[in-house]
Amino acid sequence: MKKNKTFNMRKLVIRILLLIATVIFVYPILWNVIASFKTNEEVLESPWSLPAVPQFDNFVRAFTEASMGEYILNSFFVTALSMFFLLLLVIPTAHAISRFDFRGRKLLHNFYMAGLFIQPVYIMVPLFLLMNNLHMLDNRLWLSLVYAASALPFSIYLLAGFMKSIPKEYEQAASIDGCGYFLTLVKIIVPLARPGILTVIIFNFFTFWNEYALALVLMTTDEKKTIPIGLANLMEVQRFATDWGALFAGLVLVLIPTITLYALTQKKLTEGMSMGGLKG
Amino acid sequence: MEKKQRSGFILFCIMPTLVIFSIFVVYPVSMVFYKSLFQSSGFGGNEIFVGFENFIYLFSDKTFLISLKNTGFLMLVVPVISLTLALIFASVLSFGQLREKAVYRTIFFFPSILSFVVIGILWSFIYHPNMGIVNDLLTFMGLEEFTMTWLGERSTVLWAIALVLVWQSTGYYMVMYLAGMDGVPKELYEAASIDGANSFVQFTKITIPMLWEIIRVTIIFSINGVLNISFVIVTVMTAGGPNNASEVALTYMYEQAFNNANFGYAMAIAVVVFSFSIILALISNRLTERDIQ
């Protein structure tokens, strides 16, 4: 009986500590959402108070004056296009690496794995010079291709790992039925690898949607910039001309797709972590 | 015929990807090393081969040395704190037998999918001297004399940034550890429990050794991750200020390249930072090497 009591006591302490941690993790987001409905004076007043009247006008100004709408459209466009390029590039390579034995297979795999250590920030300077020489700067299409290329190592790692687990019998059956290599890939492997492909899409959505360093140096015209750049600029401007409301509304707008996707996929995402992230 | 078709298909699968990857990743990486040996200011044309002069100059460049020191500080402090916290949270969630385990996992993981820019902006306001919650809380607790401009003081700015990086990454590593802990056979704990080992002993004698390989991987991941995120966070939150007190190596690299057009010098910085992080990873790998048997 007594033992049971100390056990419950311990659970209570754990729960309290976890709740405090939860507040620390959630507070900034919650505060952001509340502040996006406040007037400037209310924002300055106290970080605790609620807005007297919700200022939906903040969101209107985020669109009209801070051109958040354009940035968001650019971001959607770049994210979608990057994803298209990435899938086009990663599926065949992951297929070859995981389902075929050929000379140099191991080397190719290790080559991409070494790429895991190359962060985009390292190569932003030479990439800028390269794109400048090729006249590819300030172009959403090429930016997307660069994004897809820089996402390759991690995506190959995830997808090749997943494809390895598909039983060989499927291909043998297909080849008996007279399916060529290409048709086998498109008709058999891709549908079977759907969960793996989905994991690749989810992880990279966040990467592409949030990317900052490369967009900062590769895009120059304001109308073509993506939302992280737009927000950072807005933050810079707000230091002088105070329209906090529009800034916070802008932040909420970026968070909406992120939170939506996370709510829909968080289980898959945390499972994906154990699928790819561990077997280094 | 069959064989030819097979090789053709393999080439068709791997070549386009390899070409794109080589142009946009491999070539720039090799350029970083090659161009670090040149003095190149501006675009094309006027490049002078200077050998290792950029590197020699780097180590007498005060701002660079400060930025390297700051980067090193973050690379040590952030992994230590966030991995320790992640391990503690993971084991509490894994063994606490709480029904709401999945909820906490979802919440703690959340910051790691947020845009670094959004995180930087939000935390600038949390640290804000007038309207930030940190000072507000201190005032509320009657500790008014401790309130300060967290991002404006040389003594606090780096710790303030380190805390943001910890906040961002702890949940990510926690989820990795949780996945690892689910793979540890429960019988081990039962046996230890019968032998009278308390939970702390179980944690140090079972959990940590069983997760050791994962811990080693996460140390390297997080050292590497600090470089990337610190660039964005510092750019957004402090721009390296006050007085370079929060300058990190990659923000300095950016300034040299895009504000001063010192491209060769900037790439020398990238080479040093890259080597620095590889050396740190090797040291950590060496220190954590252990016979599991």
Automatic annotation (TrEMBL), chain A:
Give UniProt keywords alphabetically. Answer: Cell membrane, Membrane, Transmembrane, Transmembrane helix, Transport
Upper lineage = Bacteria, Bacillati, Bacillota, Bacilli, Bacillales
| Parts forming coiled coils | none
**Similarity comment:** Belongs to the binding-protein-dependent transport system permease family.
Q: Which residues form the ABC transmembrane type-1 domain?
A: 72-265
Q: Which residues cross the membrane?
A: 12-34, 71-91, 111-129, 141-160, 181-209, 244-265
- State the membrane topology: Multi-pass membrane protein
PROSITE patterns recorded for this chain? ABC_TM1
Q: Provide one Gene Ontology cellular component.
A: plasma membrane
InterPro entries (alphabetical) = BP-dep_ABC_trans_perm (IPR050901), MetI-like (IPR000515), MetI-like_sf (IPR035906)
Pfam families registered for this protein in UniProt = BPD_transp_1
Q: Where in the cell is it found?
A: Cell membrane
Source organism: Aquibacillus halophilus
The Gene Ontology biological process annotation of the record reads: transmembrane transport
The keyword Transmembrane helix is assigned to this record: yes
Going by the entry's taxonomy, the superkingdom of the source organism is recorded as Bacteria
Q: State the name under which the record lists this protein.
A: ABC transporter permease subunit
From TrEMBL, chain B:
Please tell me one Gene Ontology term that the record gives under cellular component.
plasma membrane
Domain ABC transmembrane type-1, residue spans: 68-284
List localization entries: Cell membrane
The way this protein sits in the membrane is described as: Multi-pass membrane protein
User: Which PROSITE patterns does the record match to this protein?
Assistant: ABC_TM1 (PS50928)
Q: Which GO terms describe its biological process?
A: transmembrane transport
Q: Which family does it belong to?
A: Belongs to the binding-protein-dependent transport system permease family.
Q: Which PANTHER family match?
A: ABC TRANSPORTER PERMEASE PROTEIN, INNER MEMBRANE ABC TRANSPORTER PERMEASE PROTEIN YCJO
Q: What is this protein called?
A: ABC transporter permease subunit
